[in-house]
Amino acid sequence: MYAEKMNEQLKDCSYSMQVFKKESPYLPTKKIGKNNPKAKEIRESNKQRMNWNKTVSAAIQRGIPIPVLAEVKRVEVTEPIKAAVKDHGTATDLLMRIIQRAAMTLARFVSQLIMYNAVDKAKPGEDKFYEALDFARMRMPGSGSREWER
Questions:
Q1: Cα(138)–Cα(47) distance, integer angstroms
Q2: Cα–Cα distance for residue pair 14/112, rounded to 1 Å
Q3: How many whole angstroms separate alpha carbon 44 and alpha carbon 133?
Q4: Is 105 exposed, middle or buried (0-12, 13-18, 19+ CB in 10 A)?
Q5: Long-range contacts for 75-83 (Cβ within 8 Å, ≥24 apart)?
Q6: For the stretch 15-32, what's the b/e string if a residue is b when 16 or more beta carbons lie within 10 angstroms of its beta carbon?
Q7: DSSP string for residues in 24-42
Q8: pLDDT at 35
Q9: Cβ(71)–Cβ(124) under 8 Å?
Q10: Model confidence over 120-149: pLDDT tens digits?
Q11: 2 Cβ partners below 8 Å, 6+ apart?
């Protein structure tokens, strides 16, 4: 809301801030204020978020529908982060690992959809969708269903 208000005041649109909706597949980055003691952690977190966002942009360019990407975000980022915050608080390194693992899973999932010509068959909410997503996650070395907790 604040970013939208600030964008309204700008004369040059090239400086406007991008606003992501909650149901969007993109992850927003955090602003770093002056003299912020957590600036280094925020920069690292923003790097992981930007990596996720680049992976999402590449998937969109390859023809993956936005609802599919939004569901992957929900399953691989939003839910694990909620569980991690509930169990461990806001441990920044844990949250960054969740986002990093989710970006790798998304890249593998997109590759599988394209390799098997299943882009138009991927329907969030169906069992086969989640099985394919689990398969993309399991192909990572040492990954389990809740590997991000380690």
A1: 24
A2: 36
A3: 26
A4: buried
A5: 75/130, 75/133, 76/101, 76/102, 76/105, 76/106, 76/133, 76/137, 77/27, 77/52, 77/102, 80/146, 80/148
A6: eeeeeeeeeebbbbbeee
A7: SS--PPPP--TT-TTHHHH
A8: 86
A9: yes
A10: 988 999 999 999 999 998 866 544 444 433
A11: none
The pLDDT tens digits for 88-127 are 887 778 889 999 999 999 999 999 999 999 999 889 999 9
Look at the chain and count its residues.
150
Question: How far is the C-alpha of 3 from the C-alpha of 134, rounded, in Å?
Answer: 36
- pLDDT tens digits for 34-80? 888 888 888 998 999 999 999 999 999 999 999 999 999 999 999 99
CB contact burial 56-83 (16+ within 10 A = b; e otherwise): beebeeeebbeebbbbbbebbbeebbee
Q: Exposed/middle/buried for 102, CB within 10 Å: 0-12, 13-18, 19+?
A: buried
